[in-house]
Amino acid sequence: MDKLTDDIPRCYFNHSVQFFYEQSGKNISAHWRPRDYVVVSLGMGVSVIVILANILVMVAIFINRRFHFPIYYLLGNLAAADLFSGIAYLHLMFHTGPWTIKLSQNQWFVRQTLIDSSLTASVLNLLAIALERHQTIFTMQLHSKMTNRRVVLLIAAIWGLAIFMGLVPTMGWHCLCDLDNCSTMAPMYQRSYLVFWAVLNLFTFSLMVAAYTRIFVYVRHKSQRMSQHTSQIRHKETVFNLMKTVSMILGCFVICWTPGLVLLMLDGLGCESCQVLRYEKYCLVLAECNSLVNPIIYSFRDTDMLQTFKRILCCLCRRGGAGHKDTLSGTRCNTLEQERERDVLQRQDLNESG
Q1: DSSP string covering 87-113, please?
Q2: Which residues, 6 or more positions from 186, have their beta carbon under 8 angstroms from its beta carbon?
Q3: pLDDT band at 226, cuts 50/70/90?
Q4: Distance CA 250, CA 99 (A)
Q5: 13: which residues sit within 8 A by CB, 6+ positions away?
Q6: Sequence-separated (6 or more) residues with CB below 8 Å from residue 54
Q7: pLDDT tier at 341, thresholds 50, 70, 90
């Protein structure tokens, strides 16, 4: 049997992960059951699709110059966060079920840190997108005038803060020295940390929903005062379409993640009658599905993004020798010509609407 750490009394740094699971009441099987095979297989399949879909979004934004604006950089960074989420979930699938018993404490913390950091990165990206839309929409602009340097610094800050938040439990906010306050869903985390993390994210969601509601009210009021010239109608529709896209992304994120966050908060508050373990798996799957929803929204809401997806897939299907090179070159040329025409129309629209 494990012994208490000698240098830090009443701490359990030398104990196994199974010990904490048993203490919290979250028992894990040492043998593979049919349910375990189904969960792991589905989880791996979803993770691979999430990874490939978000790589496609990032490549589309990279090769199409029409997407080289702050809002699309932030959307691309959101896709990177979803890609990270897919990798974290795939890593979880290789370290769950009966495999959990074999994990060391450090391996368990790494597993949880990846999940926590990916969610924090997504939340911060959505907050940054909300602020960018607030800045541009209230001046009836299509794109922000933020410099590339500031966008890069913002993206770096998002990932730095996300990684820091994911590492907070390993830096001391755990229950290795306080077994009475260990949570049930995350048996090595303190209940107070789960409450803090859930409340912080739910509060951020509320701020973003309020921001988008205010933006929609403003845009609708502003549009009613615009004349009915064709160019102004086209500009108004462009603004609305982009707003609808980012709002759908935010809405799906809130729908997919709110049940899990509420469950974490109930666990953190010590609700014994809530049966959090009964719904844990479903909330985790729902949360992971969000990383697959965003590429679908891009496809159906943004015609240019959909066309870029098709070009990329066609290039991949026609790979091989000079034919592949010519196809990719032709794709870039066609894309650039269309971008120039659209940029001219957008500048005309902005001048007339101003």
Answers
A1: HHHHHHHTTSGGGGGG--HHHHHHHHH
A2: 112, 194
A3: low
A4: 34
A5: 5, 105, 176
A6: 79, 80, 82, 83, 86, 291, 294, 295
A7: low
C-beta of residue 144 within 8 angstroms of C-beta of residue 93: no
Tens-digit pLDDT profile for residues 84-103? 999 998 998 888 878 888 88
Please compute Rg for the chain using Cα positions. Answer: 24
N-term to C-term CA, the chain: 75
Q: What is the mean pLDDT of residues 191-217?
A: 85
What DSSP state is assigned to residue 320? S
Q: How confident is the model at residue 51 (pLDDT cuts 50, 70, 90)?
A: very high
Arithmetic mean of pLDDT over the chain: 78
Contacts of 29 (CB under 8 A, 6+ apart): 36, 97, 98
Length of the chain measured in residues: 354
Q: Do 337 and 284 contact (CB within 8 A), yes or no?
A: no
In a 10 Å sphere around its CB, with 0-12 CB exposed, 13-18 middle and 19+ buried, how is residue 228 labelled? exposed
As beta bridge partners, residue 174 has 189
Backbone CA torsion sign across 154, 158, 160, 165: positive
Phi first, then psi, for residue 189 (nearest 5°) are: -105, 145
**CA-angle at 245, arms to 241 and 249, nearest 5°:** 165
The DSSP code for 176 is T
